[in-house]
Structures are given as structure tokens and as C-alpha cells.
Design brief:
Order of helices and strands of chain B: HHH
Number of helices of chain B: 3
Largest sheet of chain A: none
Oligomer: heterodimer
Distance between the termini of chain B: 59 Å
Strand content of chain A: under 5%
Shape of chain B: elongated
Distance between the termini of chain A: 66 Å
Number of helices of chain A: 3
Helix content of chain B: over 70%
Largest interface: A-B, 56 and 56 residues
CATH architecture of chain B: Orthogonal Bundle
Helix content of chain A: over 70%
Number of domains of chain A: 1
Order of helices and strands of chain A: HHH
Chain lengths: 120, 93
């Protein structure tokens, strides 16, 4: 199903560049999920798709619908706001859970809690 | 002509996003520990949301936007619940 909306050339160029750039950034982030060695490194890689990739594709979508309907359409802001607010929360929660699990298993590369006194 | 090139670019982007979902699925199946799998699931959600948005651009319908919003909401709830479970062993205490 190869199709595209009828857009003026300037809008098509901008939308194409933004969509392609956003998906390339997301792919690079997801590729880091495979290549990077530890969990704490992988947490950083995936945020590339959740911030830059998402922003590029949402701006492209906003521009596309604004040109198609000849009025400003900004409801994609909802997704941008929501993902921008929730991604740090989830990833901090996940990283804290991971560091808690690693500490309770006495994994070697995990630092101790700062300020905590070591017993024994 | 412009429309054809835009259609090609959008299809190429969808293939790239599909590859990104493949990377996340690989890490989810392979991941050495549970937190790797949860992280891969989060990435899978975000990438699926972006894929739906590109379908919305392709067809010019706003239906896909609502589906993407629902996926974003559900992904947040799912990842928070799984992270809480990894931390404490229970979701609701």
C-alpha cells in the first residue's frame, strides 16, 4: 500500500525529511539496544527514539494534517506532552529497580549506595 | 511525482521502524535479565506508536492518531507496573 496525500512540494519535502530522520533516529536507538553491553548503557540508547524520533515524526504529522485541512491541527501535542512526561518516570523507575536487584544479588560492577555505611 | 517520492520515503520509514521493532523484539526474547526485557517492551511500545503515526500521515486519517495515543497511555502503565513489580515483587501493595 504505497500511497501519500496530495501535498504541495515544500510541505512534502519537509514531511519526508522529518519522517525519514525520525525513523532513522529510532532505528539507531533500537540498534543500541542490541549492541550495547550492559543494561545501564542500554537505558540511554532507547531514549533516542522516545525523544528525537518522536518529536520529528509528530512535527511531520502536525504539518501534514495542518496543510491537508487548511487550519492548524495541533492535537499531536498531546502525545508529545504525554511521552515527554512519562518516559523519564518509567526509565528512572526501571533503572532503580535494576540497581536494587543488582545490589541485592551483590553484582560486581554496581556501586554501593552513596553515603551508606558498609556493614562488616 | 512529489506524491510518489513522498510515498516511497514514508514506506522506507515504515520499514526502518519495523526493523527497530525487530531489534526491540530480539532484545525482549534474548535479554539476559528481566529488566532488559521490560526496557525492550517499552521501546517496542514507543516504536509501534511512531509506526501508527506514519500510517496516519500516509492515509491522511486521524483515526491512527487516537490509536497512537492509546498505545502511549497503555505503554506507560505497563512499564510502570512491570518496574514496580521488579522492585518490590508486587504491583499493588
Amino acid at each position: 500500500m504505497m500511497q501519500a496525500p496530495d501535498l504541495p512540494t515544500w510541505a512534502a519535502v519537509i514531511i519526508g525529511l522529518l519522517v525519514l530522520g525520525g525513523s532513522v533516529l529510532t532505528l539507531v536507538g533500537a540498534f543500541g539496544l542490541i549492541r550495547l553491553p550492559t543494561f545501564y548503557a542500554r537505558v540511554h540508547a532507547t531514549t533516542l527514539g522516545a525523544t528525537a524520533g518522536m518529536a520529528a515524526i509528530l512535527v511531520a504529522s502536525m504539518l501534514c494534517f495542518s496543510v491537508l485541512q487548511s487550519r492548524p491541527v495541533v492535537h499531536e501535542i498531546l502525545i508529545a506532552l504525554f511521552v515527554t512526561l512519562t518516559t523519564p518516570v518509567t526509565l528512572i523507575l526501571l533503572a532503580r529497580a535494576a540497581i536494587y536487584r543488582d545490589r541485592s544479588e551483590k553484582a560486581p560492577q554496581v556501586p554501593d549506595m552513596p553515603g551508606a555505611r558498609r556493614k562488616g | 511525482m512529489t506524491s510518489l517520492i513522498l510515498a516511497l520515503v514514508i514506506t522506507a520509514s515504515q520499514i526502518l521502524l519495523g526493523l527497530a521493532m525487530g531489534c526491540a523484539a530480539f532484545r525482549m526474547l534474548r535479554g539476559p535479565r528481566a529488566q532488559d526485557r521490560v526496557l525492550a517492551l517499552d521501546t517496542l511500545y514507543v516504536t509501534a506508536m511512531l509506526l501508527l503515526l506514519t500510517y496516519g500521515i500516509q492515509t491522511g486519517r486521524t483515526l491512527y492518531f487516537e490509536a497512537a495515543l492509546v498505545i502511549a497511555l497503555m505503554g506507560f502503565v505497563g512499564t510502570v507496573a512491570l518496574g514496580k513489580f521488579l522492585m518490590r515483587g508486587e504491583v499493588i501493595e
